[in-house]
Amino acid sequence: MNQFYKLIWLAGSILFAQFPVFAEQTDRSLVPNMFAPESTPAHAISHLAVFVLVITAAIFVVVASLLTYVIIRFRGRANDEGTEPAQIYGSGLIEAAWTTVPFLIVVVLSLTTARVIHAVQDARKPADALDVQVIGHQWWWEIRYPKLGIVTANEIHVPASKATFLDLRSADVVHSFWVPRLAGKIDLVPNQVNSMWIEPERPGLFVGQCGTYCGTQHAWMLLRVYVETSENFDQWVAKQRKLAENEPTVSAGRLVFERTACINCHAVNGTIATGRFGPDLTHLMSRDTLGSGVLTNSLEMLRAWIKSPGQFKPGVFMPAMNLSDADLDQVVNYLTTLK
Amino acid sequence: MNGTAKTDGTIGALPLASIKADGKTIFDHIHSWLVTVDHKKLGLMYIMYGLGFLVIGGLEATLIRIQLAAPNLHIISPQTFNQLFTMHGTTMVFLVGMPIIFGFANYLVPLMIGARDLAFPRLNAFGFWLSALGGMLLYFSLIGGEGMTGAGSAPDVGWFAYAPLTEKAFSKGHTTDYWILGVLVGGFGSIATAINIITTIVCMRCRGMMLTKMPLLVWLNLVMCGMVLIAVSPLTAAQIMLLLDRYDGSHFFDTQAGGSATLWMHFFWIFGHPEVYILIIPAFAFASEIIPVFSRKAIFGYPVMVGATVAIAFVSLSVWAHHMFTVGMTSTGNTFFVVSTMLVGIPTGIKIFNWLGTMWGGKLRFATPMIFSIAFLFQFLIAGLTGIMLACAPWDWQLNDSYFLIAHFHYTLVGALVFMIFAAIYYWFPKATGRLLSEQLGKWHFWLFLIGFHMTFDTMHIPGILGMPRRIYTYEAGRGWGVWNLICTVGVVFQVIGVLIFVLNILLSLRKGKPAGNDPWDAWTLEWATKSPPPEYNFAEIPTVKSRRPLWDIKHPSDPDWKYE
After folding, report:
1. What is the ipTM of this complex?
2. What does the DSSP assignment read for B405-430?
3. pTM of the prediction?
4. Which of A182, B227, B245, B271 has a 20 to 30 Å separation from B218 between CA atoms?
């Protein structure tokens, strides 16, 4: 019998060890916790949230205690079989009381909420605010800096301690832009331009993802917002504004890239590749992820991704181009020079 | 009830036993169910149909939970996962919630108002079979969704099917068409039944049953059916518009040709939000019958309860855009829907307080229907409070479409509606079958389901707070969601075992349950005056009532209700 328990214990511990959740190493700064805000709208929201939580918790405690009291105090007892309790049909005074109190609570909550709505939605745009355009695609984010002439994808760089105003649109279906530690979400609706703003306080990486179901790969439409010091941000801008590197040693790979269908969808600034259906690759290697967050960006991953995107992101619109191994190596070599 | 109760306290039996034809084959029985226009048989068919789909929708949910148990699992493909949550949502709302509440309304309303059937028995059968056809159409998509080549497909657009994802450009094949047609046809069935129930309540109450003497269940179903008429129609219209978009070149929601994505959202939610109340008001109705009987007291504040229900119905018609706080409405628009949504909280709170008032000073009996009702009170309280959190538009910008929202509405639909459906089944099963469900198995069912429910849905709030959106088939490790999701999934195990015990309880009790008699709970409304199960004509003699609790009057002739009402 002892053996039997040992066996179960062993099986259990093996099973547990298999579950990645218990091995999950969590970097708390990468948990998109809405109660750990790092930017103004998210701060305002979490303050409101705490206020509402306190009020609702108080209501819960009062009503749940009353319910519990009633259940214990008025439980049927063995010795009262056959008799009925006094019948009470109602009381106007009591009804009035428990109508008035909730009404007052509603007034308070409505006014508080209205104030935060106004503060966030009707905020004036400062003259020095950074403008960013976000365009949702199935299933990636096109990011544009119209005044800076930058086009990138999935990863947004913004300066700390300065307002960034985003206007958001969609190229296909409804998406939703959500980075909980910076702000609440806002939908990207076709034929409509929505706007939101953030004013992050400190440098750091803040993650989020698409909030509205948008088709097969809704799950892998991740967002990364890099908040940087203004010097780092300016450096990043300067780099992004350059044309693509033209590294002569990889011209063979560039030829493969330009002669294959790659350029129908991808643009590389300064070359004949001007496709707009997929992410701009001019500075591909300056990004940390591939496939809108499904893979980390490295030489091996890039190769695996190009070879078979659907293996990592089933349903993705990027096709496997069936390149020969030699061509594949050359294309990857070329792409890795796009820093 | 003019004092002419038969010696056994029943007004239901005619001496017709000899007419009962023996020697019927199984086919005769099936035939009799297929062609029936009897409200009781149709009611039971609605309920069985809904319970059948409850099992199917539950299995879909179980698969979803397995896939989400840990980060980066690849048990189910994204395509299948998207179909599972679409089918789960559509099934639970249109093929479980609606049929079951209509089933109970069908079964109970005529009995409670002392009528022999609904006003239009054939329309009733028509409504049921339309609803059944809707369900069949939806599930036929598994075979017919992609034509002959792509067997094994189902709609994958989500249960509220946001345009333009449903347009031809983004949803090829026929799966979305089956979704549209299934919901459309079922909607017609709902409208037919709603008209029928309203007519019955307005025209066919027995003598003495003024509107102010109707049992609360009848009142609440009247309100619910009125809401069905108002709310289902825009959905039906929107489905037809979408069909036109897909097949006749119109561009209502076709954004590529200038259509509007938000137009669909408005159409859907002006149905969708009243729909939530359509589903929850019957749960209130069950609670308003069960809690008084097991507290041994008349309902507290009957007129206020009626008024609060009507108020909920009215206000709930003006709250729909609280589903759209993130769509980019103006600050004024957002504020309007914040205020209207919060206002619903007032009559809802009044209801909870009145149930509390009913229990106050009573002698509570904790039979299975009552313990489910008590759990309902606590859970509905929490669901209401998380609802207030979601009504604060700025917080909703964070919470909308996150797992917090999923937890919230499962608290209302499972924690409140499903718990009250279980309570109602334990309460009225003896009336419908003549046998009581086992109390012992009932308690096992209750506790297992309660533990499972709280493991799954209490925990589910947390990944939402931590930024986990709904409808993702997997998520990366390191976001802090894994452990919570695992606990959610483990809770499902308890719920599944609970439901299995419930099914077992029904099967065993049908054959061997304790005979119920006419009035096993010592209750007060008219359905308990007739036999269990009631004869086809319900009452041999149409009763006359003087108060809201006619059986109380009979049982306490010296202290009848009508003196005080």
Report:
1. 0.92
2. HHHHHHIIIIIIIIHHHHHHHHHHHH
3. 0.93
4. B271
